[in-house]
Amino acid sequence: MSFRRGTLAATFTVAALVLSACGGDDNDTPEPDVADAPEFEEGTTMARLAEAGTIRVGTKFDQPGFGLENLEGELEGFDVEVAKIIAGALGIAPEDIEWVEAPSAVREEVLENDDVDMVVATYTINDARKERISFAGPYYEAGQQIMVAEDDDTITGPESFTENPDATVCTVTGSTPSEQIREYLADPGQLVLFDEYSQCADALRNGQVDAVTTDNVILLGFVAESDGAFKLVGEQFTEEPYGIGITKGDVEFCEFINETLRDNEDAYEEAWAATAGQVEGTETPKLPEFDACA
Ligand code: GLU
Predict the structure, then answer these.
(1) Which of 21, 32, 52, 79 could hold 88 in an S-S bridge, CB 3.0 to 4.6 Å?
(2) Whose CA is nearest to atom 6 of ligand 1?
(3) How sure is the predictor about 187, in pLDDT bands with cuts at 50, 70 and 90?
């Protein structure tokens, strides 16, 4: 399976790229329970999806530990496993999920355009996004941090960008980190924006930028893949509760997702252990308390 990595968010808007999952996993990821002919109230999203026998899930394809296309062309990661747990409760097997690449900047749009049924993509719940979509969860709590080259001892946290106006930092268009880092910059020109975090990691490796900023758990995935080339510095300086994006106002679907996660805490912990939990520096999370569905 090959697909093009976007250089423009618009590429993804026009034609969200679709990757079909190929059957069973060949690694240690748990097999989710798949409900046998579950019944749902007529007219609900759950009834529609269960009847269709498929669900379109927007996720990342380039983030180790959360949503990454592996060498066999299959997706792996914690978000991918969380989506499989929810699909399973709808009676939909992993191989019947349609995966749609959803870079940060298009996540609201793919839901508004009905290109996907849900987005599970390291997606921070916040009020601006809630004006356009709704969130189930949170199912995980991350925080923004900074990643630099292993031999860099000049950047030690976000304040380093205030103190050194020549230092550049890369993140992704449409992400919360791209907004939150601005207050630390001496000059807006210090911020370098790409569509995907793997592009920032490449830019750091090539010396085109001095740092990358996003959620700690995403950065830890890139550190683990870097063969000692990258490290994290400073403490986390924001809170990033991850939600599952759904169509605005679909309270029943939100409640169904929350209930499913609550009923599958063991599967949730196993999913973590088999994916993001493999990365050094991570701890198995407890399912956080959910927000009210709205
Ligand atoms: N959690 C943050 C966000 O939703 C950063 C990670 C991402 O861009 O996916 O914007």
Answers:
(1) 32
(2) 122
(3) very high
